[in-house]
Design brief:
CATH architecture of the largest domain: Alpha-Beta Complex
Keywords: 2Fe-2S, Iron, Iron-sulfur, Lipid degradation, Lipid metabolism, Metal-binding, Monooxygenase, Oxidoreductase, Steroid metabolism
CATH topology of the largest domain: Naphthalene 1,2-dioxygenase Alpha Subunit, Chain A, domain 1
Subunit structure: Homotrimer. The two-component system 3-ketosteroid-9-alpha-monooxygenase is composed of an oxygenase component KshA and a reductase component KshB.
CATH superfamily of the largest domain: Naphthalene 1,2-dioxygenase Alpha Subunit, Chain A, domain 1
Protein name: Rieske-type oxygenase
Oligomer: single chain
Number of strands: 18
GO molecular function, one term: metal ion binding
Number of domains: 2
InterPro entries: Cholesterol_7-desaturase, KshA-like_C, Rieske_2Fe-2S, Rieske_2Fe-2S_sf
Strand order of the largest sheet: 11-17-16-15-14-13-12-18
Helix content: 10-25%
Largest sheet: 8 strands, antiparallel
Length: 402
């Protein structure tokens, strides 16, 4: 005889649901690195969008991007060389132009009419190189152009990009979810948000955040000699699916510092992406107005940012993909963000107003701030007690055996 269990909603077990990560990649501009790294007269290999690309600069300084595999016999163009304005295959020296046409074959009388390969729309801006991806093969959408950065290395009063990259073995959606996730800043990054608001509209998603310093949690900054922060004001906007410009004002003991943080990525395949990030800062007033000192300070700030991203990466490495996250009242608009993000994965004629209409959500921080203030105070008190006990033990005179 089988027992009958009359369960209620409160008794039901919540199961994690997830589908496989999408095999197609987001439509939009993707930053692939620093412009200066591609201007050395050599072809460069980029694993992206489930394939390999070759990137180089021609004699006019224009960045060119093609599929890396030669349409002749499959040689890897990124392992070849630049000859004039063309990339030469290391296998048989077929010369490919930035327009995707084979320009010459040194040992052949003529080039086959069908000697064409795939070209990728590319642009250089603010010292960065971008590639446009569209599953349907359409040209870049003018309204989704990446805006010029207000400040940054193009302004001589700002530092050059302090830049870093790392491969993350998970789907890109994991990093996008952070746009609405206020609570993880406290528990993962040891930050203390006090104001948090999201706005989604068209192809942009913005996070407005204000925060204060955590007096109980700054060992990482101390370890690298970074200056002590009192708080920050951040306006971070994704312009399309993968490129975030974060206008930051860091409030330090020595004063405020205006900073631009670039947080961007491109997919390697559906289960991994390249995370790229950099900082440029308005040069602070330093002794003798030394530019090197300002660059050193920017490098320390990037080191702090790197620590934060590595904390995220550790979470991503060990969590599971989840399509039905169970949320509490103080969580952000995860499902609304994912609807916004979906617009980049469907065909252009399938983008709906629900994905692009303006949506605003200001999180009520009353409960989180109360809980976090209490936790910080308890941690500070505990450390003070431990320090006092240690000092008292050290003050006790040591007796020696007669």
């Amino acid at each position: 005889m089988t027992a009958v269990h009359n369960s209620t909603a409160a008794d039901e077990v919540r199961h994690i649901e997830f589908e496989a990560a999408p095999a197609r990649f987001a439509r939009g501009w993707h930053c692939i690195g620093l412009e200066k790294d591609f201007r050395d007269g050599k072809p460069h290999s980029i694993q992206a969008f489930g394939t390999k690309l070759v990137v180089w600069a021609d004699s006019q300084g224009e960045i060119k991007v093609l599929d890396a595999y030669c349409r002749h016999m499959g040689g890897d163009l990124s392992q070849g060389s630049i000859k004039g304005d063309e990339v030469a295959c290391p296998f048989h020296d077929w010369r490919w132009g930035g327009d995707g046409r084979c320009k010459q074959i040194p040992y052949s009388r003529r080039v086959p009419l069908r000697a064409r390969t795939r070209t990728w729309h590319a642009m250089a801006q603010d010292g960065l190189v971008f590639v446009w991806h569209d599953h349907e093969g359409s040209a870049p959408i003018p309204e989704q152009a990446i805006p010029l950065i207000d400040g940054g290395p193009s302004d001589p009063t700002w530092t050059d990009w302090a830049w870093a990259t790392t491969v993350v073995n998970t789907n890109c959606r994991e990093i996008i979810d952070n746009v609405v996730d206020m609570a993880h800043f406290f528990y993962v990054h040891h930050a203390f948000p006090t104001y948090f608001k999201n706005t989604f509209e068209g192809h942009t998603a913005t996070q407005l955040q204000k925060g204060v310093n955590r007096d109980d949690m700054r060992p990482a900054e101390v370890a690298i000699g970074a200056p002590k922060r009192l708080g920050n004001t951040s306006v971070a906007t994704y312009h399309g699916p993968s490129f975030m410009i974060d206008d930051l004002i860091y409030h330090y003991e020595h004063g405020d510092t205006r900073t631009v943080l670039i947080n961007c990525h491109y997919p390697i395949d559906e289960n991994s992406f390249m995370l790229l990030y950099g900082i440029s800062m308005q040069r602070p007033e330093v002794e003798d107005d030394d530019p090197a000192a300002a660059d050193a300070l920017a490098a320390k700030m990037v080191a702090t940012v790197r620590l934060g991203f590595e904390q995220d990466v550790e979470i991503w490495k060990n969590k599971t993909r989840i399509d039905n996250p169970l949320l509490c009242e103080e969580d952000g608009p995860v499902y609304q963000l994912r609807r916004w993000y979906e617009q980049f994965y469907v065909d252009a004629d399938q983008v709906t107003p629900e994905m692009t209409d303006r949506f605003e959500f200001e999180l009520d921080t009353t409960k989180p701030v109360e809980a976090w203030q209490r936790e910080v105070q308890e941690n500070v008190a505990r450390r003070a007690e431990a320090a006092a006990a240690e000092a008292a033990a050290a003050a006790v005179p040591q007796t020696q055996d007669a």
